[in-house]
Amino acid sequence: MIAWSLRAARDSGCFDRIIVSTDDPEVAQVAITHGGEAPFVRPAELSDDHCGTIPVIAHAAQWLAEQCERPTEICCIYATAPFVEAGDLRRGLDVLNSSGADYAFSVTSFPFPIQRAVRITPEHRLTMFQPEHAQTRSQDLDEAWHDAGQFYWGRAHAWIAGTPLFGEGSAPVVLPRHRVQDIDTQEDWDRAEIMFQAQHRADRMPTT
């Protein structure tokens, strides 16, 4: 998975340096093998399961500053995003620069109106999150979007200042749902393998 993200970054032509932030020597070696850098070891306090993205990128930005390098734009690409594409990274940088936003990151639409979502109660019954929309037609509800979990372009000063990602300071880079699959669970992995095979079959199909 790391190799796919690194290849997309290289192919985009957007970056002066492609740095992998990790505390794992094996991951660092994979990064180097596939054209990235691993010039520092991420500190332990930024390597647990609860650390957010912003402190990790801020640490990398501050490390660069200590090396007398001061990038103006920094992109965080997740290693758990095997469908990230070079063209989307270029488009994200264009959106960041044209919008004047602090961040520009990948989003995709929910396949079903979130206003009609239901929860399963402890009694194993169903209740609506927004019962006022029980009779609202789906086509009359606002479309909703979610973080696609692929990449986050941001201005270096925003990362370092800890500016929140989710808010009016961010601009969307819209991706189609069929190219979005974050990987956190075995089910995510299984679905990603099916999506990957389908995409590569489509790429090999002859055109007329």
TrEMBL record:
InterPro entries: CMP-NeuNAc_synthase, Cytidylyl_trans, Nucleotide-diphossugar_trans, PseF. CDD domains: CMP-NeuAc_Synthase (cd02513). One of its GO terms (molecular function) is N-acylneuraminate cytidylyltransferase activity. It comes from the Bacteria. Coiled coil: none annotated. It holds the Pfam family CTP_transf_3. SUPFAM superfamilies: Nucleotide-diphospho-sugar transferases. PANTHER family: HAD SUPERFAMILY MEMBERS CMAS AND KDSC, N-ACYLNEURAMINATE CYTIDYLYLTRANSFERASE-RELATED. NCBIfam families: PseF (TIGR03584). This is CMP-N-acetylneuraminic acid synthetase. It comes from Sphingobium baderi LL03.
